[in-house]
UniProtKB/TrEMBL annotation:
Keyword match Oxidoreductase: yes
EC assignment: 1.8.7.1
Top-level taxonomic group: Bacteria
Keywords carried by this UniProt record: 4Fe-4S, Heme, Iron, Iron-sulfur, Metal-binding, Oxidoreductase, Thioether bond
Region (Disordered): 1-39
Domain Nitrite/Sulfite reductase ferredoxin-like residues, every copy: 105-168, 353-418
Domain Nitrite/sulphite reductase 4Fe-4S: 178-329, 430-559
Required cofactor names: [4Fe-4S] cluster
Protein name: assimilatory sulfite reductase (ferredoxin)
Keyword presence, Kinase: no
């Protein structure tokens, strides 16, 4: 679990400036400053054998000899480079998460993350993922908020066949986890939206083709998250990625990208910053490579909890970062560029929308990303029956189905409703996401998926016939690490054990209010506020959300958003 320090309730909008280097008495582990001698156990195992090298051992040794044969350093380190984490052993309560060693928490089964760059899938690929889930993962499947699909209950003996099936349809798990360039987020409507400025697919494909699996970039200080969009809704949560490219129209150079660097959440949230440059589409991959190399060479490696790129950006600032990028890594200056205009529309793409070719795409939501292998294979059949072979995952745990003729839209929507995928969901269902939680995650303290699904069902009953007073996001996380982006939600819930009225320790959540990323309702991203002592029990989420949303409906000024109200409201109104 990360040991980064918590941010204060009154943190500035862009997040804490950490100043990791100021006054440091020890080397920070920056390769270009301090040399490459490993300064902790993680850096040591990466130097001894790169994470990419473990696949050969998985296929030739561990898959044949079983879980007990796995070298502990491979198991707890290098396996991640191929999308594999040991999952939590059933029956261990959240109170023991921080007291047990990893080997005491883990089961002999794995979570497997299937990497889906840009969220782009065919029905053939979806069917393969679904069948792998059925055959090897007890039917489990979750859509993540990074456009991937995660499976559980995977045994190491199954991995050679799983890789064979995935790679036969152009999918894989290479660098889906680990200290590497993770999946590249892309607009779910790339290439098909009527109003996109540019299709980022060629840039995503060039980055992944050139750099994913490259040993020169497979030992970074920590994870490196990327995002690219050409859509005016700014639909790839660019402010919380290590690097992001957002389409802009330059008055002289035309359509290209605005470059953002240094965003990330976890327990020290920090929003990314603009470098003030315009990046031509044919330079995106080179600029991405330059920023990734800066992270590799100058990132802080001594302490794992200070190793994300946001800490380097916090110390350098955007001006120095741009100077180093241009002079040391690119060899040329980037043109100055304009900031993106205010986002338009909702970036989750739920509902029915016309494509540029006259057909339609349909965005649908399961409840908190929970699907199943059976549902995925059935979905592939349904999409094909309605004349399409393409779909997309989204950074909001949703699915977007492409290329539907107008006369097939309503029949498809009706069929999708039958399998729990709604194109016209309630506002609470649409706005709720949840991380994996204690069901499978070794870091979690509380349950998330089942808790969130129960809360959504309860709230839909309470608001039957009226719905929430306005669109509202509810993000539920099982620990402080913010995989579900709690600091950028209208209502963000951070899992912890709380004390109930009878003095018992029970699963619950600390509440963050009024966070959000850039949208049509919000010009700039900002972090949520906390109210001292405000905690909610796991079985009290629906009560709290109903209470605070009705208070907001009564108190709001005109068309004031929930986030605006939450930041100005007195604390008593938020309790």
């Amino acid at each position: 679990m990360s040991s980064e320090q918590s941010t204060s309730a009154n943190a500035p909008a862009r997040g804490a400036r950490t100043r990791a280097a100021r006054g440091a008495s020890k080397p920070l582990g920056q390769w270009k400053v301090d040399g490459t001698e490993p300064l902790n156990a993680n850096e040591q195992f990466k130097k001894e054998s790169g994470g990419l090298e473990v696949r050969e051992r998985i296929e030739n040794i561990y898959a044949k000899e079983g879980f007990a044969s796995i070298d502990p350093t491979d198991l707890h380190g290098r396996f991640r480079w191929w999308g594999l984490y040991t999952q939590r052993k059933p029956g261990i309560d959240g109170g023991r998460t921080a007291t047990l060693e990893p080997h005491e928490l883990e089961d002999e089964f794995f979570m497997l993350r299937v990497r889906i760059d840009g969220g782009q899938l065919t029905t053939e690929q979806l069917r393969v993922i679904g069948q792998i889930s059925v055959d090897f993962g007890r039917g489990t499947a979750d859509l993540t908020d990074r456009q991937n699909i995660q499976l559980h209950w995977i045994e190491v003996e199954s991995m050679p066949e799983i890789w064979r099936r995935l790679e036969s349809v152009g999918l894989g798990t290479t660098e889906a986890c680990g200290d590497v360039p993770r999946v590249v987020l892309g607009s779910p409507v790339a290439g098909i939206s009527e109003d996109e400025l540019i299709d980022p697919t060629p840039q995503i494909e060039e980055i992944t083709r050139r750099f994913i699996g490259d040993p020169e970039l497979a030992n970074l200080p920590r994870k490196f998250k990327s995002a690219i969009t050409g859509h005016p809704s700014q639909d790839i949560v660019h402010e919380i990625n290590d690097i992001a490219f957002v389409a802009v129209n330059h008055p002289e150079h035309g359509v290209g990208y605005d470059l953002w660097v240094g965003g990330a959440l976890s327990t020290v949230p920090r929003l990314g910053e603009r470098l003030g440059t315009w990046v031509a589409p044919d330079k995106v991959a080179d600029v991405w490579h330059g920023v990734c190399q800066i992270f590799r060479d100058y990132g802080y490696r001594r302490l794992r909890n200070k190793a994300r790129l946001k800490f380097l950006m916090g110390d350098w600032g955007p001006e120095k970062f741009r100077q180093v990028l241009e002079t040391e890594y690119l060899g040329y200056a980037l043109p100055d560029g304009p900031a993106p205009v205010r986002a338009t529309g909702r970036g989750d793409h739920v509902g029915v929308h016309r494509q540029k070719d006259g057909r339609f795409y349909i965005g649908v939501t399961p409840v908190v990303g929970r699907v199943s292998g059976e549902r995925l294979t059935e979905l592939a059949e349904i999409i094909e029956e309605h004349g399409s072979t393409r779909l997309r995952t989204t950074p909001h745990q949703k699915l977007v189905i492409l290329d539907i003729e107008e006369d097939r839209v309503e029949p498809l929507i009706a069929r999708l409703d039958e399998i729990g995928l709604s194109a016209r969901p309630s506002l609470i269902r649409r706005g709720t996401i949840a991380c994996t939680g204690i069901e499978f995650c070794k870091l979690a303290i509380v349950d998330t998926k089942d808790t969130a699904m129960a809360a959504v069902a309860d709230l839909e009953k309470r608001f039957a016939g009226e719905d929430l007073p306005a669109p509202m996001s509810l993000h539920i996380n099982g620990c402080p690490n913010s995989c579900a982006r709690i600091q950028t939600a209208d209502i963000g819930l951070k899992g912890q054990l709380i004390t109930d009225d009878d003095g018992n320790k029970v699963p619950g959540f600390q509440v963050h209010l009024g966070g959000g990323l850039a949208s049509s309702d919000r010009e700039e991203a900002g972090l949520g506020r906390t109210v001292r002592g405000l905690k909610v029990s796991a079985d009290g989420i629906a009560d709290y959300v109903e209470r605070v949303s009705r208070r907001y409906a009564d108190d709001r000024d005109g068309d004031e958003t929930f986030a605006q109200w939450a930041h100005r409201a007195e604390e008593e109104a938020l309790i």
